Amino acid sequence: MIRKTNTAAAPAPAPNAAAASRVNRDWLFWVTWLLAFLMVFWLTTVILAKSGIDLFKRADGNDLSPIFSAPAQQDNVPMPDFVPGVQVESVVRSTSLHTIIPDESFTVPKKYTVEAGDSVFGIAQSYKLAPETVLWANQGLLNDNPNMLSIGQELTIPAVDGVLHTVKAGDTLESVARKYQANPEEILTWPGNDIDIVEQTLLAGETIMVPGGEREMQTWVVPTIWRANSGANQTVNAGCNTSGVVVYGSGYFVWPADNHSISGNNYWSGHLGIDIAAAQGAPIYAADYGVVVYASWIGGGYGNMVMIDHGNGYHTLYAHNSSLIVRCGQGVSQGQVIAYAGSTGNSTGSHLHFEIRYGGMFVNPLDYVN
User: Tell me, what's the pLDDT at 265?
Assistant: First the structure.
């Protein structure tokens, strides 16, 4: 007997899971590669754009309508072209209204002609030297006295601080160095001396520079003149009678001129006073009470000079005056007009040379005037 069986159609088989997974991987692979390519292309475009190369410009300059472009830079300030390796040469001019020399180095002495308004101190400063160096180099002309400076003189200006020495027969580097308390090696190696390093021979009559050398200053000064019966052994007969005048100083000093600025020489070892700016004919005042012990012309470059003995060990001196209005033996008050400023004696311009002495010794007036 045949049994009839009722059968249903079998369902369609499901897609293979492995095949579906492979399709998904292929799709992701190509998408990833596409994104990577686009990123590389974009970065390349940005880099080339910063280098000045535009991929989207044809040879004829027309735009290719780029798909990608570098982001615009904000606040891009244009800068000027930089040209490396170019040296700029310039000359710096001094702001000084009175320039004596160019700012240049030298190794052999120079010559300088004195002009109106010059002083040993000012000339030395212009050459960046000590004033003693200028005096020592011109001993035959100035006799170590800055007051002997006058217009038209031709000064010798050393290249460095020290002493110019004229070689005598028998001189050696060691003996010259000893004389000026200097180093013989510095004399030997100074370029301007042109001494043979091997022979080290000095030729008689030649002038050599002794860098850093120094010698005693042979200063000529007006002697201190004391009033009569002062008991001082430095008394010099001034040719006038002061015995009947009894005026004594206070010990305090006022400025002897209306102008309180230095004009020319300051106080230093070669100039034992100060030069005060004073126009021709400006009044000159007694710095303190005292007795005039000199009022006349005097040598040494001082010209018309007044000296006052203050009776307490102090003396004051006023030089280069155009005219004097006090006489020797006269008592004066502090602030009294005693003369008028000028440029008598050896002077390159109107000014007052002012000295204060105590016990016959020089002191710096700037430490005393109020």
Answer: 87
